Amino acid sequence: MAKQIVHKLVDDLEGGDADEAVKFGLDGVQYEIDLTAANAQKLRDIFAPYIAHGAKVGRGGVVVGGQAARGRSGATAGREQNMAIRAWAKKAGRDISDRGRIPQEIVDEYHAKAGR
């Protein structure tokens, strides 16, 4: 007896036949949604202005000029950057501990004001 297995994409928004699976990420979370071509285009149109002003991020970090920005190993570079952020924050009069996670607002302020 022969069997035929058919995998069918169903549009996750409207329930009809989907044309493609669209992958996207937001806030560090990756998503995949099955959509018709029209709904996929709507999603791309919504993201277009944000993508135009954003920086593409690859597995190794932010992509600069088509190549991932790399240098030292991630752990070493991360420690050194954290030390620099802590030193900058203390000099700027910000309340920051010597250990533990650095608050994101301080990291963002460091990158914005220190130009790094």
From TrEMBL:
Domain Lsr2 DNA-binding: 78-112
Keyword Kinase: no
This protein's UniProt keywords: DNA-binding
Residue ranges of every copy of the Lsr2 dimerization domain listed in the record: 1-58
GO molecular function, one term: acyltransferase activity
Protein's UniProt name: Nucleoid-associated protein Lsr2
